Amino acid sequence: MPDESSESSTPTVEVRYKGTAVSPGIAIASAVLLFADEHIVRKRRIRPEDVAGEITRFEASLLKTRQQIQAIRNQLAVSIGEADASIFDAHILSLEDSSLIESVKEQVVSRLVNVDFAYEQVVRSYTRKMRELDDDYFRERANDFLDVSHRVLRNLQGKVQTELRNLDAPCIVLAHDLSPSDTAGLDRKLVLGIATEAGSRTSHSAIMARSLNLPAVVGLRELIGKFEPGVEILIDGYEGLLIVNPTDQTKYEYGQREKLHHDVDLKLDLLRETLPVTLDQRRLIVSANVEILDDLPLIKEHGAEGIGLLRTEYLFLNQDESPSEDQQTEMYLQMARASKPHHLIIRTLDVGGDKKRPHLGIEVEVNPFLGFRGIRYSLGRPDLFRTQLRAICRASVEENVRIMFPMVSDLAEVKEARRMLEEVKTELRAENIPIGEKLEVGIMIEVPSAALTADILARHVDFFSVGSNDLIQYTLAIDRGNEKVSGMYQPAHPAVLRLLQTIVEAAHRNNIWVGVCGEMAADVILMPALVGLGVDELSAGATSIPRIKRAIQALNYEEARQLISRCVLNESAEANQAELAQMANRLYPEIL
Ligand code: PEP
Ligand code: MG
Questions:
Q1: Is 517 considered catalytic here?
Q2: Which is catalytic among the residues 91, 171, 176, 204?
Q3: Per-residue pLDDT averaged across 101-111, rounded?
Q4: 348 lines ligand 1 (CB under 6 A)
Q5: Distances (CA, A) of 129 to 125, 134, 141, 293
Q6: Which atom of ligand 1 is nearest to the CA of 406?
Q7: Residue percentage of the chain with pLDDT more than 70
Q8: How many angstroms does the Cα of residue 447 sit away from the middle of ligand 2?
């Protein structure tokens, strides 16, 4: 990150910021800023001569906030009556609290900090004191007070909330973070790219961006405030760069680079009809991960062998209510037909964690990734689960359909989910509704307890698919979406490779197949590890498929097996990463 002394002044020359590339491609457009509920207030040193200007800014924002609240109050007085509207009087009064106003000014003067920061600090300490009082009235008022303070901060920072629904011109969306449902709802015609301060390669919004084929850079820490929305920016989803005010020369160079990438892609397209077989004839299956119906044409375009992971939660996250049984059946049937002659693996709802929508009724949890997530949610919401099971069973008349349960951590969950599945089948038969007779049942292995008991679980299912994104986060205790620890998110860690080895051996000993459908499957540097471990299927975003095929075709299974037997004994992820990269570089440098 360049070191800039002022946060708010938009640079007039080209400035580059480095983040993490998560979705390839290049986009140039003006930036729109999307604010999440929480405010991002940064401390900035000011000079003594800036104090007066800061205080004027503060007073102006208090006045503006007062006018806004007064306007809302007047409107409500007409629509709902004077009595209810008068609750806003307390909001207006809190803007006139002279001791608060003086504390803020005093901080600006004595500490020489920007007024937004001083205000946020004072508000924080007031809120804490109000909440500590043993009085319900004051605790309630603390929320009102915070509400008003957010409005003041918004005015202070000149923020205008951009509504994703109201975009009217091509743009690049800039945000602190984007939720998976925000990303899924992006208008592809207008949003040309995304750039966020938070996030990492395996965060769900990054996965979604790849699925939408939308250039994206994340982990651009402390970017917001460095320039004003509306300025032209370029994002480079190959190198993880965000460039403000790109010069004509930069744009020209990027045009040339895009041509090169395009040429490589054209060559890879030639692999579409070829099979993923290693030099020594080990055949793997390479299928696609799909989130939305729009992805369907990409499956064939990129030569995928069916769908290895349908993340059905996006059918729920994209809208304000859960889809009905008929709607789901229709969508699954469409997916099944598009996957033929290969399989469609329908993963049941995997909400919770960061995948939420109000209609799903997921409460705020302290540790959502360890909470009511995946199969736990489905078993706890039999109404939703049964509807989905019925839809999947109905779609299984297309005989290529398989079902898979996410986030399994214990055999009891598998047994209960299977029991409900059987119940639903019996019900449908009794209603004379046709269903397929050979619906295979698989589970995702993405929790260490499931990996370590894979031999037990394998006796109860027809296949495994490793969710490496979660398996890595739970094994290494590294939040997959947190850019602050993303450097420690290491797929080649010996602990991860050992668990993978345990899973594959348990599956094969029990004569079931095992796939990998996390982002690891799309990382061609890790391909020697996955091939060497003996994984049978790889499922990844459709656009990654040609590269995966090319890597498999260049590898030798026996050689990769020997490499992995050394890697599991190596002392560090770095050592493994280096050995794997060396093999990848030697065998398929053109796609790295
Ligand atoms: C995974 O965890 O690797 C996976 C494929 O599931 P998701 O990314 O949807 O959590
Ligand atoms: Mg997962």
A1: yes
A2: 204
A3: 94
A4: no
A5: 6, 10, 11, 50
A6: 6
A7: 94
A8: 9
Ligand closest in space to the Cα of 538: 1
User: What's the gap in Å between 586 CA and the centre of ligand 1?
Assistant: 30
Ligand 1 pocket member 311 (CB < 6 A): yes
pLDDT tens track for 170-212: 999 998 888 777 777 788 889 999 999 988 888 877 888 888 8
**Catalytic site residue 176?**
no
| pLDDT tens for each residue of 306-327 | 999 999 999 888 777 899 999 9
Active-site choice (176, 302, 393, 517)? 517
Domains and CATH numbers, the chain: 15-35+163-263 (3.50.30.10), 48-156 (1.10.274.10), 270-591 (3.20.20.60)
| The two structure tokens encoding residue 43 | 């401390």
CB 32 within 8 A of CB 233: no
What confidence tier does 8 reach under pLDDT thresholds 50, 70, 90? very low
Mean pLDDT, rounded, for 93-113: 91
- Going along 356-426, which residue ranges are E strands? 401-405
State how far the Cα of 289 lies from the Cα of 304, in Å rounded to an integer. 9
Give the integer Cα–Cα distance in Å for 528 and 557: 8
Is the pLDDT score of 144 beyond 80? no
